[in-house]
Amino acid sequence: QKEVEQNSGPLSVPEGAIASLNCTYSDRGSQSFFWYRQYSGKSPELIMFIYSNGDKEDGRFTAQLNKASQYVSLLIRDSQPSDSATYLCAVNGLTGGGNKLTFGTGTQLKVEL
Amino acid sequence: DGGITQSPKYLFRKEGQNVTLSCEQNLNHDAMYWYRQDPGQGLRLIYYSQIVNDFQKGDIAEGYSVSREKKESFPLTVTSAQKNPTAFYLCASSIDFRPDEQFFGPGTRLTVL
Prior knowledge:
The complex is a heterodimer.
Chain A: E1 4-5, E2 11-14, E3 19-25, E4 32-38, E5 45-50, E6 54-58, E7 61-66, E8 71-76, E9 85-92, E10 102-103, E11 107-112
Parallel strand pairs in A: 2-11
Antiparallel strand pairs in A: 1-3, 3-8, 4-5, 4-9, 6-7, 7-8, 9-10, 9-11
Chain B: E1 4-7, E2 10-13, E3 19-25, E4 31-37, E5 43-51, E6 54-57, E7 64-66, E8 76-78, E9 87-94, E10 103-104, E11 108-112
Parallel strand pairs in B: 2-11
Antiparallel strand pairs in B: 1-3, 3-8, 4-5, 4-9, 5-6, 7-8, 9-10, 9-11
């Protein structure tokens, strides 16, 4: 069983729509949750992190965490073509502790004109 | 500008050769990490270092070696024992080893010919 799971996509949304990206994790001891954006051929760029249950908003991005259900999601409002990328979910606090991140395989988002 | 640099950007190696990938940071971060990414895959942890002169194996350390003689430098050697070395290698750092954000360098793409 994978520790961090994401739908690989591609997820296609029209420009201006809301994109919803989901991630589930297996270890209930997980403490911190991160969303990275990765453009093709580039390195991951941190866009959001969340530690507590509930929602966290930053501009057009909202991260949602539900520890009871073991999922974390990322909403992108008013999606733009420049949002087209792969979004990686990362979790730490898994067994082994410290700041070792476990990554999902990523969801490819395509924002269409 | 503070950040993480990796060199070279592209590296070609013949089978049987060892190669060393450079990673330097001027963020004054204690912790540093090496990941590899294969096409369509998430990032997998190779080695990490919580502090200078200390490092630990990650999930896929076989065929790799590292050193951490200076706080700002964490070079990775890909040895001839690594069976499938062709990949995108990413170096990251964080303030320390408590659960927190990791920031990535631009990556080195290694191709074995």
